[in-house]
């Protein structure tokens, strides 16, 4: 018998944690019961990834690290809302008024030289409906996205939407204050929407139609309500800028799409990545110069 050179043998496939990958065809009976975690991961892969990427995702899927970014951001936003609703003097906590408008976190045109406000406004919300809507959307969408793409990608898209939202508001609605995490939430929605549209045929067409319709209905309803608060409602406390919605969704449909569609690929070698990053940086630079030299705000 010929000697076998061990070094020439194909290495056993292992995942990123060093565990041997079990190929489905090698299962003796094909009837192995999936655990709860595996079932959840398989469901996530069907909703978040085209078919060509699902096998690779399932081979290395785990909950380590957990979706810590979106959970921590949500806890922070809820904590700030509770602080202003309970520990700050308010006429009512269903719709907050004085506390949030005097907050050092709120974006205000006459305080825009305090640069942190362009990001920190995401922690402040105008009322129960406002905070619940954002939390529900970002948790339902952000947790599966972070399980697939991990915290860095989701965090970059979310914060890009937050910054794009406040900068867009400072340009197109320069005289009104801004609160809420809608820019970040809409960035996640925009990135997922573009991924669902571009990979429509590979992401289970029937579910693809349902996904797109749900996104359109949710976005249309929310934007409609934002228009109502801005132009129809007589409650001055609710008249906040709505432009952050559009800034966030555009950031998601560009930067977010690149991050979420390039699963398991090196972004630095993707020309779309550089195109979106350069476009985003140009927008940020223009917005900064506008706020310094051209803004009509005080």
What do you see in this structure?
- The protein is mostly helical and 298 residues long.
- The protein has ten helices and no strands.
- Helix 6 crosses helix 7 and helix 7 packs antiparallel against helix 8.
- The chain is globular.
- About 5% of the residues have low confidence.
- One of its GO terms (molecular function) is serine-type endopeptidase activity.
- Its main location: membrane.
- Belongs to the peptidase S54 family.
- Keywords: Hydrolase, Membrane, Protease, Serine protease, Transmembrane, Transmembrane helix.
State the share of residues found in helices, binned by percent: 55-70%
Give, in order, the helices and strands: HHHHHHHHHH
Inertia-based shape: globular
Rg calc: 23 Å
EC number: 3.4.21.105
Function: Involved in regulated intramembrane proteolysis and the subsequent release of functional polypeptides from their membrane anchors. Known substrate: EFNB3.
Keywords: Hydrolase, Membrane, Protease, Serine protease, Transmembrane, Transmembrane helix
Pfam family, one: Rhomboid
